[in-house]
Amino acid sequence: MPLVLNRRAFLQGALASAAFARSSSGARAGAHWAFLSDIHIPASSADRYRGFSPVANLGKAVSQIAQADLQGALITGDLARLMGLKEDYQAAKALLDPVAARMPLALTLGNHDERKDFFTVFARASESPVKDRQVMVMEARPMRFILLDSLLSTNLVNGLLGRDQRNWLAQYLRTSDATPTAIFFHHPPDDDDSNLLDSDRLLRIVMPARKVKAVVFGHSHAYRFDTIDGLHLINLPAVGYNFADSEPVGWVGARVAAEGADFTLHAIGGNTAQDGQTKSLEWR
C-alpha cells in the first residue's frame, strides 16, 4: 500500500466513516481540548466570504469554548483571512484573548499566514527546535501533541514541512518515550498538489512510530476521518467558512485518552446536521 494517501481514496474513506459512533453523553475520560482550523480572520469585521462572517463565527466559537470544561485549545493554521497581514492578526488576537486567558492556546501556521507579521503579534513557540518555524511539543496528559509548521509561502496553496522539520521529527520520535502522540499541522497529507508536498516523506517517518496515533490538519474546510494502517487522519472543519454547502462550519471538542479519543462536532454554521455528534476512535 502506498504511503501517500490518494486524494480520491481519502475522500471515499472519509465518507464511508462519516457515520458517528455515539452521542456525547458517553464521553470517555481524558484531557478535553478544543481543536479549530481555518479561522481566516480579516482586519475588518465587515469582511464576508460565501455569506459567512469569519469574525462572527470565531466569536461564537470562543463563547462556546469559554463555557466548556477544557484543558486547552489548538488552531491548525490559516489564522489570517488571505495574506497574513499584521492587522489580521491583531483582530484575531483580540478575539482569541478570552480563550488564552483561560487555558493554553497553541497556534500553527497555514498557507494564508505570514511568519513575520504573525510573530509580531503572537508569541513564537517557546524554544522552537526548528529555526524560524512554529514548532512545539505540548503535554496533554495522557497524550502528547507535536505541532509542526507547513507554511511554504503566503497565499501559495500547497505546503511543505521541509527537511529540517522532518529530521527533527524523526529524531524526536526515536528518542522520546512511548506517550501516545498526535501530530498537528495545516495541510492534508495526501498526494494532491494543493496539499502537503512532502506527505510521502512525512509518512515514512510517522508510520513505523507506533506511538503516533493521529495526524490532525485543516486546509480543506471539510470534516473528515480516515486511516492508514491504523494511523488516524483527522481533517478539522473550518471556523471561518466552508467551501461546500454540505460541510459544517465550526470546531471540534476532543477528549483524548491513552487508548483513543472522542471528537464532538460543534457546528455553528453551514451544514449543522451533525452538530453535537461524536466520532469515537481507538488508537493503534
Individual helix count: 6
Proportion of residues in helical segments:
10-25%
Describe the strand arrangement of the main beta sheet, using strand numbers.
Answer: 1-13-12-11-2-3-4
Overall pLDDT, averaged?
92
CATH topology: Purple Acid Phosphatase, chain A, domain 2
Which architecture per CATH? 4-Layer Sandwich
Encode the helix/strand succession as letters.
HEEHEHEHEEHEHEEEEEE
> How many distinct beta strands?
13
The biggest beta sheet is recorded as:
7 strands, mixed
Structural write-up:
- The protein has 284 residues and is an alpha/beta fold.
- The protein has one domain (29-282): Metallo-dependent phosphatases (Purple Acid Phosphatase, chain A, domain 2, 4-Layer Sandwich), CATH 3.60.21.
- Helix content is 24%, strand content 26%.
- The chain has helices at 7-16, 54-67, 86-100, 115-121, 163-175, 199-206; strands at 22-23, 31-36, 72-76, 105-108, 136-140, 143-147, 181-184, 212-217, 224-228, 231-235, 248-256, 260-270, 277-282.
- The strands form two sheets. It has a seven-stranded mixed beta sheet, covered by helices on one side. The chain has a six-stranded mixed beta sheet with strand order 5-6-7-8-10-9.
- Strand 6, helix 5 and strand 7 (181-184) form a beta-alpha-beta unit.
- The chain is globular and about 50 Å long.
